[in-house]
Write a structure and sequence with these properties.
This protein has 163 residues and is mainly α. The protein is built from 7 helices and no strands.
Length: 163
């Protein structure tokens, strides 16, 4: 199956980003958290708006899929807007959870890993191996938030007030 040059560029770019996210998970997990939160927020907005304007766009993923072909061309084709809206809501919740702290980060990471593993069978349509790279990076983030909100990590360590 021949791919357009633009799709190949997007595929390569996605995997470079995936490798950078994986690298950051070993060096600065809070950067990985930020990247994942931004990625899921962007995906939520994109999926929500695209499924309403051009729902049949999602049927094109069937040509790249290792599996899911019957599902995409069957039940999913009749419920695109509802299904993709539910996915977008889940992606938004993951983005919010990644920005928060404690158990919410852990739950968001678990949701992200499940999401990445679920889209892996879309093959080229999921920029495989991007989902596996980023799922591993997400796993590395679990337990690294040290009880801090993401935006406090962006500001850096502030001195503790002495009373």
């Amino acid at each position: 199956m021949e791919q357009s040059p633009m799709l190949l560029v997007a595929y390569g770019f996605s995997n470079i980003i995936g490798l950078l996210i994986l690298w950051s998970s070993f060096r600065k997990p809070w950067i990985t958290r930020l990247a994942l939160a931004l990625l899921f927020a962007w995906a939520a907005w994109t999926n929500y708006t695209v499924c309403r304007a051009h729902p049949n766009t999602y049927l094109g993923f069937s040509r790249y899929a290792f599996s899911y072909l019957g599902f995409i061309n069957g039940w999913f084709s009749l419920h695109i807007i509802q299904m993709v809206t539910a996915i977008a809501i889940g992606q938004a919740l993951i983005a919010i959870g990644l920005a928060y702290k404690g158990i919410w980060v852990t739950l968001a990471c678990a949701g992200a890993i499940i999401f990445f593993l679920a889209i892996t069978p879309l093959g080229f349509g999921s920029a495989f191996p991007f989902p596996l790279l980023v799922a591993f990076a997400t796993w590395k983030v679990i337990g690294t938030d040290k009880g801090k909100l993401l935006w406090t990590q962006l500001k850096g360590e502030s001195p503790k007030k002495q009373f």
